[in-house]
Amino acid sequence: MSTTYTIPVGPVHVGLKEPVTAWLELDGERIVSARVRPGAIHRGIEFMARERNPIQVIYLSERICGICSFSHVMCFIRAVEDLANLSVPVRAQYIRTLVLELERVHSHLLWAGVACYTIGFDSAFHLGMQLRERVMDVLELLSGNRVNYGVATFGGVRWDVTPQLDKAIREMIRYYRREFTPFREIVMEDPVAQARMRNVGVLTREDAVCYSATGPTARASGLRVDLRKSSPYEAYADIPVEPVVPQDYFDAARGDVLDRFAVRVLEVYQSLDILEKALDGLPEGPFVAEPNLNKVLVSLKKAEGTGWGIIEAPRGDDTHAVHLKGGDDNVFWWKVRAPTYANAVSWPVMFRGNELADAPLIINSIDPCISCMERMMVTGSSAGVVTKAELLKRCRQKTFDLKARGFERGVER
């Protein structure tokens, strides 16, 4: 009769790129079951939005995540545009699509590099990071920033595609079509890398449906799901997108880490095609409906209702819901459902039957963003909610108590 024991992995661990805790029940080196708990870096962003007007929340939403910051901005902006019936020029829709695909390229390249680092394939990790620099240079040329680009605004975008940027994107496309294939072949044809990723962290098609997996995690399990096809937005209505699934390229979809790697690297090629088509079809015209943000803010103060914004972010379905109350300057409430919030539910299933040494690779295989999906956790049966007013009252009361005890200049009498 075997005896199992439980060990914790995280919240801070050398094999994890973000804090999350997993309790793994082991039989020797084999994982029997697992429990996963986030809760280390909740920042209260949704609550902070209630003290800001919609334009100020644009900059707050961009800081939910550094890697997919434009995806979160677009979700929030599209939600507000939905409830306020704001129009967006066609040129702006194409520019938004360009930035979304540029972000997808750099996100997938970063993930591929991290996956290589996790299994100890350091030379491939460095090659992946070197490749990623080219798309980051293009994003910097567009906005001046390598992350948090400040491109999107209500009714359009803040920056236009200049001839210089058009040339840089086309050169980048040619560069990746020339240089990215050797990276893919080095990793996917290496027998050791295949052994480390094949049949590891399997999520079957049935489990992917049962646990509501999304994005590349779901597609790696064989599900043809992609909001760019099923619910096209921005310029995707003019640029057809087919979901990338392993069974179209290999013998079958196994839903393991290697399939998740394959889906992401193949989506890089897909993004290059979308970028080229978007540049070729970029229409003339304005890139913002109303450049005066004061006028926009006045119109938003009159808006009332709930709006939804849903897009296919690099990690999967990203959903924002926003509610505005007419006559109120600030956002009334804001709900963010990041793709990791859905994909992390599948971790215990992926862990089962694998070895302890596979745990960091399995965790990283869904490309988790814990700061995206983090929620507050209240523990203890007597725990209550402390309002901002109550917390401020307690803070000020402590000052009065110190004075009453005779503190002066930090020294007790």
Please give a structural write-up.
The protein has helices at residues 45-48, 54-61, 69-84, 90-118, 122-143, 163-188, 191-197, 205-210, 215-220, 227-230, 257-280, 293-302, 339-343, 347-351, 359-364, 370-373, 388-404; strands spanning 5-9, 21-27, 30-37, 152-153, 156-157, 305-313, 316-324, 333-337, 407-408, 411-412. It has one domain: Cytochrome-c3 Hydrogenase, chain B, CATH 1.10.645.10. The radius of gyration is 24 Å and the shape is globular. The longest helix has 29 residues, at 90-118. It is built from 17 helices and ten strands. The chain has a three-stranded antiparallel β-sheet with strand order 1-2-3. Strands 6-7-8 form a three-stranded antiparallel β-sheet. A two-stranded antiparallel ribbon has the order 4-5. The relative contact order is 0.18.
